[in-house]
Amino acid sequence: MRVLEIAASLKIGGAEKIAHDIGFYLDSDFYQIDYVVFGDEIGEYEGELIKKGCNVYHLSQPSSSYINYLKELYRLIKGNRYNVVHAHTMFNSGWAMLIAKMCGVPIRISHSHSVDAQPDKSRIQRLYEKVMQLIIINFSTHYVGCGIKAGEILFGKTRYHKKGVTILNGIDTKKFAYSEIYREEIRKNLKVTDNFVIGHVGHLAEVKNQSFLINLMPEILKKKSNAKLLFLGEGEDRQKLEKQIIDLGLSGKIIMTGNVTDVHKYLSAMDTFVFPSLYEGMPLSVIEVQTNGLPCVMSDNVPQDVVLTDLIRRLSLNDSADMWVEAICDSERLTSYKYEKIIENLGLDSKKMVNKIADIYCGI
What we know:
Blueprint: E1 2-8, H1 14-25, E2 32-38, H2 46-51, E3 55-59, H3 66-80, E4 84-87, H4 93-102, E5 107-112, H5 123-139, E6 142-145, H6 148-155, H7 157-163, E7 165-166, H8 173-176, H9 180-190, E8 196-201, H10 210-223, E9 227-232, H11 238-247, E10 254-256, H12 263-269, E11 272-275, H13 284-291, E12 296-299, E13 312-315, H14 321-329, H15 339-345, H16 350-361
Parallel strand pairs: 1-2, 1-4, 2-3, 4-5, 5-6, 6-7, 8-9, 8-11, 9-10, 11-12, 12-13
């Protein structure tokens, strides 16, 4: 069976990780999984997938030339006679569904990975999304959401509840289980052996709201003078955040590692986790955190779907800074080891998630 994943990129990220897992876990003797990414950049997941026998095709950025992108996509799909086209690119999935329909692909899946709740979209952007939504609705054979809200955003509330399927994002639960060895290793390397480590994982961008967390640090330090804030991730807001850190006199109190490939090790080194996002779909990092047994304070803009254990405390971004500081400082690890099994039993292991997707590929 030939499957084409439209993934936009294969850099480290939530939707990208789900697309990666499909090629990584499915049986390569039965499935030929190929990928479309936009532009020339080589993502962190690409080499691993090529070793697995996947093909990765770099096509034109749609925003640079929709005509070139559509021509290239048509030639690729028509030439390789795919059985399935599975798009992970939110509203841009409409183009893939249109071309796949024109090429006679029998199974066409649009997969929503975000609630995409930006309040300041232009009129042109809203019109574009409306047109794309109509194309997605009419030319997709399957609607998939990583969470209920994510599905409702892309497909419409009534339509999604009638025809859509929710497949929660999965992770390698054994990999993300708490490890005392990793805790000691990372804390020693970062020179935070005796510190209260507050962690965050995410793209450094406005939607992840890291500036909110940085602004809390002066008050956190009043309650816990040994606190250190640890950011894992890279993004367009890095320079702005670094300036904010300097302006607040927090140099030496905040560690920014950039992207790392061994996030699971760093989670074990943390004492608590904070996730103050402006909006989210079904963030993998929060599932990983719970698997690790790490207490998590997050904004109530993150969907309720992700609250899988008693480790989560949700607060509004409109709540006082004192409430956030208290919740963060009162967090502590208790029985970290039991949570890996809890998450696995909920069916959120990557292999189980991929098997659900494979059922759709096979028409089950």
